[in-house]
Design goal:
about 240 residues; alpha/beta; Rossmann fold; DNA polymerase, domain 1; six-stranded parallel sheet; two-stranded antiparallel sheet; 8 strands; binds magnesium ion
Length: about 240
């Protein structure tokens, strides 16, 4: 195994066409009778527990009240997300190139392929299941593991060691994601950050966030493989 490759989900692997946000809103109303400023809130790159806490704090809630409702929130959210994902016409869209890329990574036999996502684990399972991709990843580090995304790379490294016996470090760990949070979350560990502009952020924003490589999408498998290996990377120059 040469590399541990960690994929973000929303905006990187797939797009649920708003299903996740609609489910989140209904669950918040059901449990807290409040959504906070959800219409103006930027979900992307944040963990599910962080989203709930930030929205409810902005609505004046104390942490003890927030914490007391979280288990019920996740139950309601998962029920609503499942309903959303099963609705006809609400098909989750797998982004261009993802399936061939996963095939190629598995074929090399040189990559441990896993998830690093702000989704709680059962939410990740529902979204990837709707896309037929649950089961394509060896393990994951999830929003249910830690509220702060910058704590998730360490979780992934630990699980990689449990799963493969290998202690991955530095540039042998590659994070692929669509937001500045994906880019920055592994910085203190020296991981290699490949950013892809298939979410809400532009290539410029991802460059400014300090991504090692920025791609417009994952459609060109050979190019993405080169980006993962770092063979195409030129400091400060976008491959996009
Ligand atoms: Mg994302």
């Amino acid at each position: 195994m040469k590399k541990l490759v960690l994929f973000d989900i929303d905006g990187t692997i797939l797009n649920t066409q708003g299903a996740g946000a609609r489910a989140f809103r209904r669950a918040m109303l059901e449990v807290y009778d409040e959504t906070g400023p959800i219409d103006d809130y930027e979900f992307h790159g944040r963990t599910d527990p962080q989203i709930a806490r930030e929205l409810l704090r902005m609505a004046g809630f104390q942490d003890a009240t927030i914490d007391a409702g979280l288990q019920r929130l996740w139950s309601a959210y998962l029920r609503e997300l499942d309903l959303e994902l099963r609705k006809p016409g609400n098909g989750t869209m797998v982004l261009a190139g993802v399936t061939p890329l996963l095939n190629a990574l598995h074929e090399t036999g040189q990559h441990l392929v896993a998830l690093l996502t702000g989704n709680i684990e059962p939410g990740a399972r529902l979204k990837l299941g709707a896309a037929g991709l649950w089961g394509r990843f060896d393990f994951g580090a999830y929003g249910s593991d830690h509220e702060r995304r910058d704590q998730l790379p360490a979780v992934a490294i630990r699980r990689a060691q449990d799963s493969s016996g290998i202690h991955f470090q530095g540039r042998d760990i590659v994070i692929i994601g669509d937001t500045p949070f994906d880019v920055s979350c592994g910085r203190s560990l020296g991981v290699w950050a490949v950013a892809v502009a298939t979410g809400k952020h532009t290539t410029r924003e991802l460059e400014d966030a300090g991504a090692d490589v920025v791609l417009t999408d994952l459609a060109d498998t050979q190019r993405v493989l080169a980006a993962i290996e770092g063979t195409d990377a030129v400091p400060g120059v976008s491959l996009a």
